[in-house]
Amino acid sequence: MISFASFPTVSDYSGYNKPHHPHGESDDAYMDLDADYDQTDGSRLTCPGEMLTSSQDYMRGHGTYVVDEDVIASVAGTIERVNKLVTVRATSGRYNPEVGDLVVGRITEVQPRRWKVDANGRQDAILMLSSVNLPGGVQRRKLESDELQMRNFFEEGDLLVAEVQAFFITDGSMSLHTRSLRYGKLRNGQLVTVPPILVRRLKSHFIALPCGVDLILGLNGYIWVSKHVKAAEQEGEEGFDAEGVYSNVNDDIDETTRTAISRVTNIVRILASHFVPLTDTVLTEAYDWTVDQQGGVKDLLTEDFGDALVASLVSRS
Amino acid sequence: MGSRVEISNEGGYRSDGRRQFELRDITINLAQQGQADGSAIITHGLTQVLVSVFGPREAKLRSQTIHDRASINVEVNVAAFSTGERRRRGRGDKRVLEIGATIKSTFEPVVQTMLYPRTQIDVYITVLQQDGGLLQACINGTTLALMNAGIPMLDFVCAVTGGVHSTSPMLDLTTLEENDVPHVTVATMPRTGKVALVTMETRLHVDRFEEIFRLAGEAGKVLHREMKGAVMARTSTLATAMGRQRSVDKDGDEQMHE
């Protein structure tokens, strides 16, 4: 099985987590160290203009540039090394898409045979009419009449979940597809945005919390929190129900579910403001903790409560 | 000059109690401001500037897209309450537009715009308080905000104002001094020592220029140390906050395997 390890895991194997001695020991295999580097996490930090290493021994990766055989950092972040490749991963910044990523986006424009989607990337993503499932079967051909009624499927402002399909060679913008029953238009919930770096690549980005709330963790930092949909309803039959998939109307959501959705949304906001990476375990723990504390949903947004929540999560680890 | 203000007294102190080459206090705040991708609040003494950076993102107007690199769009807004005398400066004010254009041309060669073709980087600068050295504060703030937004840059850009009173050069002028003393703003890139910007609006004797220019370059290095410290502290805070949680993830995985 091919596994896609996230960046931090890779660096664990790269030999960088071994203890370094900033002074004295001249170990040329490693890049030279400076007293400024933070070593709490085993990873080293840098900022633009810092010399990292010589370009004769190493290849430059993202976040670096070469001048006179010196590899120099161009962003502030952690230095990562895979064999001879040196990269600097910025601690903040926009979403950097990769093929296969799950993203949540918002339609910004309807164009001939395509939609433009804001997916927090450096350019708007493109969703072609040919990469969506249309009512009347998966294998159906796209007709001229479909082109004329594109707004019946997605309109400006609609939210959708999709997968990155490919990149355009011309300008590197991403092309999305929704050719799965799990993808498509979003309803019954609300959107939260967090810094994209906080969403790691997980086994599944569709999370169903025990409290009856579904989460979609878009790798672009857009997170959709919604009412739980039963798996049977979602799967549908072969000729899937177009009304449901492209519907603009919310289902009935009862008071408790609404409260749960708001609570999860606020938890995500708190974790993001404390720069805590989001995973299903962390979210579940956080939810249980807030329920134990018997705080109201809006109490979550007070600073003390947020600090206490994050402190409890850290102490548990 | 015929000014009644004493620029430096017999003891060699300036009107705010500083020495000739002394810089004002600097504070840097790199916390998240609203929805901006990167932001910075920098103060040089009583001059305070807030810079927010958005992007790289899709350009709003198709005419602004450049097919092989990102375009940088700088908008400066001077708050009416920022000066002693309350005065509204509109968006079309020539002084304000000029500051914006200067900052844009300073950063175009420093930001690696060719990595992001057909996009736009928006820099919004809000001047909250001004007491001299407006351009230097704007440039330093923009450097920090761009770095905070994770936009690749060749180096820091550190700007400082230098002036000359009769024959003695001085650094980091206040409004009071800027009104009386010929001054020049110099922005340097400390790694290579290259100069990104030299600008002046007053007349300065050519014999004095070199001395001030060199001094401003030295002061740039001091500023670089401060700015780098702030950027590293911010990066370190974020990295530890994320690293702390990594152990939680591992616990979660183990539970799942059991």
UniProtKB/TrEMBL annotation, chain A:
Q: Name one GO cellular component term.
A: cytoplasmic exosome (RNase complex)
Give the region (Disordered) as residue ranges: 15-35
Q: Which UniProt keywords apply?
A: Exosome, Nucleus, RNA-binding, rRNA processing
Primary localisation category: nucleus
One Gene Ontology term from the biological process aspect of the record: CUT catabolic process
Cell location: Nucleus
Q: Which Pfam families match?
A: ECR1_N, KH_6, S1_RRP4
Its signal peptide is none
- Extract the GO molecular function terms from the UniProt entry: RNA binding
What are the residue boundaries of the S1 motif domain, all occurrences included? 98-179
Q: Which PANTHER family match?
A: EXOSOME COMPLEX COMPONENT RRP4, PNAS-3 RELATED
Q: Which family does it belong to?
A: Belongs to the RRP4 family.
This chain's protein is named S1 motif domain-containing protein
Q: Which organism is it from?
A: Leucocoprinus birnbaumii
The beginning of the lineage is: Eukaryota, Fungi, Dikarya, Basidiomycota, Agaricomycotina
TrEMBL record, chain B:
Question: What GO terms describe the biological role, i.e. biological process, of this protein?
Answer: nuclear mRNA surveillance; poly(A)-dependent snoRNA 3'-end processing; rRNA catabolic process; U4 snRNA 3'-end processing
**Can you say where in the cell this protein is located?**
Cytoplasm; Nucleus, Nucleolus
The yes or no answer to whether the keyword Cytoplasm is present is yes
- Residues forming the Exoribonuclease phosphorolytic domain are 22-152, 155-218
Q: Does the keyword Transmembrane helix apply?
A: no
Tell me the leader sequence span.
Answer: none
Among CDD domains, the record links this protein to:
RNase_PH_RRP41
Q: Name one GO cellular component term.
A: cytoplasmic exosome (RNase complex)
Could you list this entry's UniProt keywords, alphabetically sorted. Cytoplasm, Exosome
UniProt main location, coarse = cytoplasm
Gene Ontology MF terms: RNA binding
Q: Which PANTHER family match?
A: EXOSOME COMPLEX COMPONENT, EXOSOME COMPLEX COMPONENT RRP41
The record's note on quaternary structure and interaction partners says:
Component of the RNA exosome complex. Specifically part of the catalytically inactive RNA exosome core complex (Exo-9) which may associate with the catalytic subunits RRP6 and DIS3 in cytoplasmic- and nuclear-specific RNA exosome complex forms. Exo-9 is formed by a hexameric base ring of RNase PH domain-containing subunits and a cap ring consisting of CSL4, RRP4 and RRP40.
Family (UniProt): Belongs to the RNase PH family.
* The name this protein goes by in its record: Ribosomal RNA-processing protein 41
